Amino acid sequence: MDTASAFAKFLERLPGWGVGAVGVLLVSASLCLYVVRVRRQAPSVLRESALLVSLALLLSGVCSPLVLVPTASAWRGRLGMTALVLAVTLLVYGTGRLFVAGIRAWSQKSEAIRSARGTLELIARITVLGVGAMIVMDAFHLSITPFLTTLGIGSLAVALALQETLANFFAGLYLAADRPIRIGDYVKLDNGDEGYVESIGWRSTRLRTLPNNTIILPNDRLAKSVITNFDLPSKRTSVLIRVSVSYVEDSRRVERILVEVGTQAVGKIDGLLGDPLPFVRFMPGFGAAALEFTLICQIAHHVDQFLVQHELRHRILERFRQEGIEIPLPESVIHVRQGQGALVESPMGADGNGSGRPGRAMAPAEASASAARPVG
């Protein structure tokens, strides 16, 4: 008779509790062998947790005959219950450490899990502890039905009392899973708040503004906001600079000068990119008092626009003065009608001609004040 057949007949002779005890012992022995073989390669937390779980299974296999076999000896029953409680304690502690270690390992690969790691670890610990408590209660022949009923009613009461807190909590999980924003992103909300995302907690999100202040936003409010993320899909963006010149200037010449100024500034201004090179569009075009152009440049990040606009405006003004290009000022023409006691004011273009639109009637007191104002 081979070994397999002998082992099968041995299991057939065992009662139900005996088969379960043998299975638990085999699983615990396998875990112990695994821990011994990978003790050098596996992380210390994984080795310790696996060892605790294997010891818990070993204890449960040992105490099964003491608890399940009917006996008149009281000390055997007490010893079995003590071993069972110890086994459940080791199992809960080891399983909790395994879950926490798994969440931490997962958080190193996923930024969404990393931002919600603390919350997930807390949920894992509470879940494992609750399951362990119910196992111990069932071992002592305590009905867990009232406990589950009380837990359900209590959960409903807590949910109603902490409605806003739970809304922020689940909104934080949504932000961690959907990832509309990430830590380090520069974002702007529909209410005007903007800044760098410093942290996404279980209740609130913190933004650090450019003046180095902190805005604390509840996650529920943030999840309902329209968010502009300047770092998605990439950090580089465009900056548009409006430039106005007089109607007497050559539009082609102005465009060429603006392109030269932008191209020469590439590499000299921090954050200004040269791929693609700066270019100009004759937009918005014909203004009320000037020809209006738009210089379009690529910058490395949204916050680089402040320095780039500052430097480019200086360079454009210096170049325009060298080339003799006029930047117009808004002007007004006042028409005086004899014998009607009213003045009519109409805007005047940069070339000295009125726009042709209807004027605005002015009272005499206002007319005297307007006459005293210089043109320009």
Could you give a short description of this structure?
With 376 residues, this protein is of the alpha+beta class. It is built from 12 helices and 11 strands. Mean pLDDT is 75; it is low at 14-19 and 349-376.
Number of DSSP helical runs: 12
The count of strands amounts to 11
How many domains comprise the coordinates?
4
- Strand proportion: 15-25%
Task: Give the overall average pLDDT.
Answer: 75
Strand order within the widest beta sheet: 4-3-2-1-5
Largest sheet: 5 strands, antiparallel
Poorly predicted regions are 14-19, 349-376
- The Rg value, from CA coordinates, equals 39 Å
Order of helices and strands: HHHHHHHHEEEEHEEHEEHEEEH
**Terminal Cα span:** 115 Å
Shape: elongated
| Helix content range | 40-55%
**Class from helix and strand fractions:** alpha+beta
Secondary-structure blueprint:
Blueprint lengths: L2 H11 L2 H22 L6 H25 L5 H34 L3 H5 L1 H23 L5 H17 L1 H16 L7 E4 L4 E7 L3 E5 L5 E5 H6 L2 E3 L7 E9 L5 H15 L13 E8 L4 E9 L5 H19 L7 E6 L6 E6 L11 E3 L1 H9 L4
Antiparallel strand pairs: 1-2, 1-5, 2-3, 3-4, 6-8, 7-8, 9-10, 10-11
Helix pairs in contact: 2-3, 3-4, 4-6, 10-11
